[in-house]
Structures are given as structure tokens and as C-alpha cells.
Amino acid sequence: MCRDVCRVLLVVVAWALSSLDLRAQNSFLPEGVDDVGWPSVRGRDHNGHSPEARLAERWPEAGPPVLWVKELGQGYSAFVAHGRRVFTQTQSLAGQYVVCLDADTGRIIWEHRYDLPYDPVGVYPGPRSTPTLAEDKVVFTSPSGLVCCLGASTGDVVWSVNVNQKYHGAGCEFGYACSPTVVGKQVLLAVGGPGASLVSLHLDDGRELWKSGDDPASYTPLLPIQRAGRDCVVGLLQNALVVCDLHTGRQLARVKLSEHYDEHSAWPIYREPYLWFAAPFRAGATMLRIPKFEEGSDVVGLDRVWHHSDFSNDVLSSVLVDGHVYGFDIIDVQSKTQRPSRGYFRCQDFETGKIKWSVGSQRAHRDPFEEPFNEPYVGQAGVVVADGKLLMLNEIGELILARVNAERYEEVSRVSVLGGELVWTPPTLHRGRLYLRNQSRAVCVYVGDLDLFVDRPKTTMSLADIPQSNYVDWAGAILSIEPEYAFDVPSSEWLWQWFLITELMLLVGHMIGGLTSRLVVARTDFDRRQSWANGVARTFTFVVAALGTTYLSRWTGRFLFTWPLTLFVAFEIVVAQSRSRTQFVTSGQRWKERLAVVCVLLTCATYFALCRRLSLVFEWVFLAGPPVAFPFLVLSAKWQRRLGKLAPMTRCCWQMLGYATFYGASVALLKLKY
Fold first, then answer.
1. Are the CB atoms for 361 and 372 separated by under 8 Å?
2. What are phi and psi of 611, to 5 degrees?
3. From the CA atom positions of the chain, what is the Rg in Å?
4. At CA 335, angle to CA 333 and CA 336, rounded to 5?
5. Strand ranges in 206-264 using DSSP code E only, listed in sequence order
6. What is the tens place of the pLDDT at every residue in 329-361?
7. Nearest-CA neighbor of 110 among 82, 88, 134?
8. What is the DSSP string of 367-394?
9. Strands across the sheet with 433-437, in order?
10. How many CB atoms lie within 10 A of CB 571?
11. Any idea what DSSP says for residue 322?
């Protein structure tokens, strides 16, 4: 009996000590504010706000102290935090993981592997959603639609269900990215299935509580709100915005937003009774008024209060502070993976939609061929609001501290933390520390008052210890003109334009080759003159085609894709070398053949890498073209040898026919695919 009493006392004492320790860790919280950490991607109230105070008024020139840096891997998942632990999702070649880290050291406490790598060499590799913490549980989703609940202490699986398979979800073509929203015992998700546009699962066992609607989903998580004392949930879906009863799922209101393909990633903002949301594709921001819902009433529409075209959000959300919205107005159609998005960081009056101030530029941040501009630049940035300040991590990895000021942009400090890669993951604030990450590493920096940094590690790092480089917009320099929708199939008009301009390059190359051979080589040395003409023509065509996508596009003001011609020329050289073999092959000829093969492999690899870096996702069809055109190229090379001393223009026609076959085969594959 005494032993049992002692055990109970020990448990109580341990709980009390841990509570005291937890309270000591959160000296940034005002008196009377409960410590719930940063439990979801947008914080405790789903709005990007933190109650933490006593943050540093400005940072030293060398930057705030760095607690740890960790190579973390691929993924867009942000951190969630409670106590001395932080959680996120990531990916390596071994698979996708949920990881639990020590908040002060970055040491991995546990990790849970849940799937194979997702799109590891694609445009958007890795998990896209952020876990959610509730009742010592971690709830997360995966790009395949898996919803899983783990024990926060151990990482053990509590329950799991694949909502895409169970409910036939639709609307998330680039991978499921809806972070779970937990309210009480409900796990709320946008799924997009028939009769299951929105779904509520039980936190304890994953069983279905309710499902509602038929609209396809998008990437924005569900937002819980209250209207006239009634608990509701808002779903910003692919083509509609809906409001449902939180407890039953009954649809209360619906407004149609668009037709056909559309997407939404940024969170809406609610201040009763008004709901603000901004969309990509230059759709702008809209304010709706949510009515009081009567019991048993039919589904109603929502009144539009105002619409403003100059405030579009894409992958990062805006915040509302003191009646004003702060966020990035993207003027590109969508965010770019190859360069910083163009647009303005703005302050907008919540009630009227009036823009109070804007900073930024229509250009990307740093163009290596232009002088840097002097106006303030924020760019697309994830924002956390705390202690009257805006803590922003922008796309080029700069951490910015600015004061909340509706009259003007007031920047206090700026440091580079994750330079060299584009960043789409918003920051997380917990215990005076910011947790940041990009597609390769994670960083924890201390941004609180140094007088409160009583539990600092024995050694801290500085920003100079973080491996990073200045971001240079090489993509913007290479693609001065780019397609607005990189994922769209090129139109027939574009394909014809590209074909005609590259055929013209071939013709001009042969003309220059023939002219220079006449000037350099004696008239009687026909074989040498032919070899010289072919060499000059191929070199000229290869170089002009390689530069044409950049400079012809800039000159004409339209996107002209000439790189396929470089593939054809490199491949045609290999075929010509193989067909020029004589009965007795010399070592010199062997080396020429090997060099030609190496050149075509390097050309293909460079072409593929550049297209992937620039998000030109139709590049594969032109890589498939040479094998299809190979038989014709062999016949072309064979007949060119038999032509003897016929006019050089005849040889030019053969090569232009060969390119037409190569290009036509590529376009045919494109049409068959799409």
C-alpha cells in the first residue's frame, strides 16, 4: 500500500516539476496565457499570430544567435512545436518521414517512415502539408492522401486511413497538401470526394464523424470559425467556398468561385462576420459577409462586400493585424520554382480593400545582368505576427523583422538565413525561437530578448556557420520570357512557331557553312570543302539554337523554345560519324565517334537539367524524338554520301527533312500523351 502511495506521489511530483519546467520555458508568454505551443501550421488560432512577447527589438548586425542547423531533406512542411519538441515532415531517398526533434539542439528523438519518396526528381519533391498537434498526438497527411495519427511521445501509430482511396478524393493534382485542422475531437479535412468534399474524423480512432458536399478539394486546410455563437468550418475548395456546421457537417452556405481547373493554397482570414480570401492566377482578394444561419434553413449564398484585383496570394498566406492585411500580392500567374515570384508586399485595409502601402518590384530579386534596384524588397514571404512585429521569411531565404505599421513599411532588421534556395515554408515561433527550413536544411534562431535566454546552450552558432550563398536569379536571366503556365501543353501555334524558327536556323547555318567553305577551302578540294561546310553549319546551328531561347525570346517578346534543335544537331553528328566509317577504322576515327557520343550525352543531360530547373515540364518529348527519328537520319546520312558533288543546298534539304522527322515525332508523342 505504501509503495503504491509513493508511486502516485512520484507521478504527481514529476508532473508538477514538468509543469514548472514548461512554464519556465515559456517566459515569453504574458501572464495568464496558456501554453499550447505552435500546434498547427498557422499557430494556435489558425491566423499566423503568436501571443509571445518580449522579443528582441532589433537584431545584431551579425544576426540573431543560431541554436542549431540540421540537414533535413526535401519537403515543404513547416514545424509545429510544444514544450521542448518540434515536429515536421521530410523526405530522403529512403522515404517520407515524420520527425520529432529536440527543440534546443535539433537532435532527432524519433522518426516515423510512412511512404516511399514522393516525386524525388520532380518539380515539387516531398511532402507538402504540416502536421498538427493535439492531446499528445501528431496528426499528419501525405501527398498520396494518407491521414495518420501518431503518439507524440513515441511516434507509434494510433490509427491511419487513406482518404483518397476511401472517399475517391479529387482536386489535388499535385499531391494532397491539406494540413489537418483539429478542433476538440474532430480532425477536419478537405477531401473532394463525391458526398465527401469535407470530412471529419475522430481524433482517437480515425472513425468517420461526418462527411459533406461534392465539390473537388484544393490545397487550403479548413478554417474553424464562429458566427453568432454557432461553430462552423470554412472550406476554400477548387471551384467553391463553403461554410458547414462544425458538429454535423451540414452545408450552410456555398458560393461558386470559378469553372474547370483552379487551385487555392493560401488561408482565408476571418473577423466576424467578414471572410477575406485571396487567390492565385491574378484573381485578387475578395471580402464576403457570412450571414447568421437559421436552424433548418436552406443553403444560402454569401454577399460580396468588395473585390480588389491588386492582392493575390498563392503558396504563402497573409495575416490580419489591427484591421489591416499584410501579405504578398503575386503578379505572376503562379509561384515559380525556378525564380522568386514577382509582385509586391502590401498592406491592405480589411474593411475597404484599399491598399495602404506596397514595397517590392515586378522583377525578380537579383538579375546577374542588371544593376540591383534600391527600393525595399520583401517578396513572397511567410509571416508570423508577435509582439507588434512581423517576422518574415522570404523566398530567397532572408529573415526580416519589421514593425506592424499601417502607414508605411518599417523594416528593423534583415539577415540571410537560408540563402541559395527558394523557400516556401512559413516560419514557426516558439519560446522565442524561430524554426525555419528549405528543401535541404532546417535552422533554429533565437529572436527573443537576450535577458530571457537563460537556458541557452553552452555554445551557440552564428549565421556565418550556416552553409548558404546569395541567391542569384539565373533562371530569370536564361528565360527572359517564359510561359505563364509551365505545366500546360504547348499550343499548336507555339509548336509551329518553334518549328519554323528552328528550320530557319538550319537553313541559315548551311548558307553560312557553304559561304565560309568557299572563302577558306580551295575549289578543287571538294571533300575538304564539304567537311568544312558541314562543320561550320553544325557549330553555328548548335550555338544559335542554344542561345535562341534566351535572346530571341527577349528580342521578340514571346517565348521561343529553340533548344530541341541543339538535341537534333548533337544526335545528327553521332549518326553522321557512324555512317562515315570506312572498312579500316583508325584510332582517330574511333575517338571522334566517342567524342560525339559524349557530346550528345552531355547535351541531353544539360538540356534536361535546365528544363527541370526552369519548370519546363514538356522537355521529355524532345528527348524521346531522336530515337524515333533515328532510321530516317541513317538513311539521310547514307544518301548524302551518294550525292557526291551535288549542290550544298541539296544536303541542306536532307538535314531539314531529318529535323522535321525528329520534331514531328516529338510532337506526335506529345499529342498522344495529352
1. no
2. -65, -40
3. 30
4. 105
5. 208-212, 223-227, 230-236, 240-245, 251-256
6. 999 988 988 889 999 999 999 999 999 999 986
7. 88
8. -TTSPPP-S----SEEEEEETTEEEEEE
9. 66-71, 441-446, 433-437, 428-430
10. 23
11. T
